[in-house]
Specification:
Elements: H1 4-28, H2 30-55, H3 64-68, H4 70-89, H5 93-96, H6 99-125, H7 137-160, H8 164-178, H9 180-194, H10 200-228, H11 234-243
Helix pairs in contact: 2-4, 2-9, 4-6, 6-7, 7-8, 8-10, 9-10
Length: about 240
């Protein structure tokens, strides 16, 4: 009894401590996993587009612009895919506390800029068929592309001055814009199933709704994070930045 009971008690205490930790670790991966699943929509669509370009699929009115000028769309697809996948992992708290977060960030930043700037280029110089655009949508794409690039630059400037909360907030906003194509499937699908093909005006509304939903969720996340994580200052901020 002298050797057995304390060991069983100690084992029970260890199990009681580790079980919540395991549950917490699983929960922290819910958000990154959900973002990756949502990202698969534009990533798979982009991979299909690259395959068509490589295989020389029949040129139609819907894809002619890509064959006439393939580099911008390929840059956009690659940049967006890297930005969305690696960016999703940046939301895992355990990874943010490791060197991996900072190393991955050095890839996420240029990938996000390529995604945003190529989107602006395609909007300005591609001849968009009526089926993929609507009134005011081109202006909205340019504004959001510029906002995404500006948010990434603001995030980089913030981390250079060791302002981690501001850095995190701006990268979250940039990611919300970049993930618009994934959420837009969720706005288009119910409308198309229940009502049918949207008009050009409704096309713009549904596209805008996808971005609006993402940005609204991003602001909620940013504000929750601000309430739960105190803003570091001085030496503690520098130490936190080194871990990021």
């Amino acid at each position: 009894m002298r050797g057995g009971i304390p060991n069983r008690q100690h084992g029970g205490m260890t199990t009681a401590i580790t079980a919540p930790r395991r549950l917490e670790r699983r929960r922290e991966w819910l958000a990154p996993a959900g973002l990756i699943v949502l990202s698969l929509v534009p990533i798979v669509a982009g991979a299909s587009r690259v395959t068509q370009l490589a295989a020389g699929t029949t040129v139609t009115e819907a894809n002619a612009r890509f064959f006439e000028s393939p580099i911008p769309v390929v840059v956009h697809i690659v940049g967006s895919s890297v930005f969305l996948l690696l960016g999703a992992l940046q939301f895992a708290p355990s990874l943010r506390r490791r060197r991996w977060h900072r190393l991955a960030g050095r890839i996420v930043v240029p990938a996000g800029l390529l995604s945003a700037l190529s989107a602006i280029w395609m909007t300005l110089f591609y001849e968009l068929p009526a089926s993929v655009t609507g009134p005011g949508l081109s202006i909205l794409r340019i504004i959001l592309g510029a906002a995404m690039a500006a948010a990434i630059v603001a995030a980089v400037l913030a981390i250079r001055r060791r302002d981690i909360p501001t850095h995190s907030a701006w990268m979250t906003r940039a990611y919300a814009i970049g993930l618009g194509a994934g959420t837009q499937v969720l706005t288009f699908l119910p409308f198309t199933l229940l009502i049918g093909t949207p008009s050009r005006v409704m096309h713009t509304v549904l596209m805008a709704a996808g971005w609006a939903i993402n940005l609204a969720v991003a602001e909620v996340v940013i504000r929750r994070r601000a309430r739960t994580v105190p803003r570091p200052s001085g030496r503690s901020a520098a130490a936190s930045a080194d871990l990021s």
